[in-house]
Amino acid sequence: MGHELHEIEPVFDRHSRILILGSFPSVKSREAGFFYHHPQNRFWRTLAAVTGQETPGSIPEKKEFLLRNRIALWDVIASCEIQGSSDSSIRDVVPNDLSRILEAAQIRQIYTNGGTAYKLYQKYLYPVTGCTAIRLPSTSPANAASSLEALIEQWKVIRELLGD
Known about the structure:
Elements: E1 2-5, E2 18-22, H1 27-32, H2 43-51, H3 59-68, E3 71-75, E4 77-82, E5 91-95, H4 99-104, E6 109-113, H5 115-129, E7 133-136, H6 148-155
Parallel strand pairs: 2-3, 2-6, 6-7
Antiparallel strand pairs: 1-4, 4-5
Helix pairs in contact: 2-6
């Protein structure tokens, strides 16, 4: 169990309309310095299918994809004790400050990627932001109960908020 610091900057600009929050980056994501970098994580494939676009490959392509689709992306946790990538091992949470995103962009809805992110958001950030979050099923490979097709179907709710 080690104390880990979240060092990946959030992706957003003034055009962002939705904010998707994970819990804390996986080991692979921390090594790569970008979100959802584990090859088995279905985040990028899910978003690509929901938006009807190609799955972005490189980190610059992923950033461009998010901004083009008005999606802000970050995590609930700024630092914590964590064993590897295990959400269930998370302890001693210090939450991220969402104010720089919420002040810069007109976020219409906050979504969480999975139950852990939702619980942590409710505990640490909802009292600060007052913004309701909607829990989406986790795209993590640990969520074996959901097929890619089921994830795409459930994540389609974000589509209506991406336009103007």
